[in-house]
Sequence to fold (372 residues):
Amino acid sequence: MTRQTVRPAIHGLLTLLLLGVAGSASAGDMETVRVAPDGKGFVLDPSGERFVPWGHNYASVDLMERLRKDPGRVEREFAEMKAAGTTVARIHPEMPSILLGPDQVAPQALEQLERLLQVAEAAGIRLKVTGLACYQIKDRMAWYDALAEKERWQTQAFFWETIARTCADSPAIFAYDLVNEPGAIGKPDEGWYLGRMGDVEFCQRLSLDAGDRRGDEIFRAWTKQMVSAIRKHDQTHLITMGMLPFPGAYKTAAEQLDFVSPHLYPKAGKVDDEIKRLKQFDWGKPIVIGETFPLRCGADDEREFLLKSRPFAHGWIGHWPDESPAELAELKAAGKATIHNAIWLSWVDLFRELGPQMTGETPAGNEPIPPP
Fold:
């Protein structure tokens, strides 16, 4: 059953109407997100209104291809995310789609990125732009992986200069996310990538020849170089890094970041353990949980984790399904939903349910927290 055969024509019309409503309310009116004066969360400038990142990772392994082949789908899905209460979408424009060489940009890729900025602004959703993604193994750039560390870092800085130059004036940018879940040190025979899941690898190492340098020294130097590259062109938007659940590894990198972004997936029956881990990322800066999802637990444990995390975190980002939530609901109603479908639908339902509480529309403390 395909997206085209399931979704009736009326749904497309409703989506266009949603985009029109969101666009009329938000295009040209989006304010810049800044860290709150007290360092606890975010505010909009110049209004000073509180802003809570509440959203999803979107199209994490095929964003640029999706934009190229079916931009209408991207528009529809941004409208669907907005209708569900989304304020932030974390996107992953893959590096092989952006760069043709160490200092050569693919012009059509920047046109696609600019179009995505327009879609996000029209929908009233801000973007958390994750950089340096080389997730799809089949698309890896041989010239890039053959570079020595110094030249590789220079190419990564060039990538970020390119992105920042393109995005600097867009009100749709929430933050630049330097890289997804990096490791500081590896060995030459291990290669640059790790974190394999099927045909993709989601993590990168920063060095394969550390010498006598410690991991914290590598993180500090690399982060400084990437932040400097962005700030050449964008002095306004926030900068962070997607972090594995190992707080000790990233503390030095966080010194130069505007906020901290750990990825935390609670285990069934062990929500309090994940809350303890979250608290270890408290380095005096706002915390946005850049990835969470009922991956290793059910919806009830995920709900408990989200509600209990509110005293410590200031934003939360899950994952948006490739299937439309309407399709998932239809499959469930027809008794045809797989376990995979059910997990995704449970997340979307939970996201909609908790949105008002997580973003502050419902005052904290007015709802029960499930017991551990």
User: Anything to note?
Assistant: The first helix runs from residue 3 to 6. The radius of gyration is 20 Å.
